[in-house]
Amino acid sequence: MSFNNLDTLYRQVIMDHYKNPRNRGAIEGDHMTVDMNNPTCGDRIQLQLQVEDGVVKDAKFDGEGCSISLSSASMMTQAIKGKPVDDALKMSEIFSELMQGNDVEDDNIDLGDIEALQGVSKFPARIKCATLAWKAMEKGVDEEKQD
After folding, report:
1. Across residues 65-69, what is the average pLDDT?
2. CATH number of the domain where residue 30 is located
3. Are 124 and 40 contacting, i.e. CB atoms less than 8 angstroms apart?
4. CB of 23 closer than 8 Å to CB of 135
């Protein structure tokens, strides 16, 4: 597949997650909530996580922001649901490396649609948009560990 076709496909995946977000809404019952924003561009996210026995049982988000920010939140919640917390944190680490423009391969971690965001690394001002939901997840997991 040529670069232009791949770039177009990635844009389509991002826009699909933006227009049809997965896991947008609120979790019923016991959960943690993390609010974060990106003051540079105004992106705002509220992430809710339900973690039981070290596994992310549910993940939902709400917020306002650009297509990259909200698409990333949609992709992230989809990717971490049902995963052990350690795997979710490993995904976040890999995603951060991807946003820095580094090649990352881990046979144990499938990024799925998240790979569509790799082009964001070419636009440093947009990296914070893409990583906002991931930073919220890391913060929530850290706070959960401290309790």
Report:
1. 95
2. 3.90.1010.10
3. no
4. no
CB 44 within 8 A of CB 65: yes
Decide if 135 contacts 95 (C-beta within 8 A). Answer: no
Per this entry, what is the length of the chain?
147
CB atoms closer than 10 angstroms to residue 13: 18
Who contacts 28 (Cβ-Cβ below 8 Å, separation ≥6)? none
Domain that holds residue 12: 3-146
How far is the CA of 25 from the CAs of 49, 57, 79, in angstroms?
Answer: 12, 15, 16
**How many structural domains are present in the chain?**
1
pLDDT digits (tens, 9 = 90+) for 104-130: 777 678 888 998 999 999 999 999 999
The H-assigned helical ranges of 22-84 are: 67-80
For 96-115, letters b (16+ CB in 10 Å) and e give: bebbeeeeeeeeebebebbe
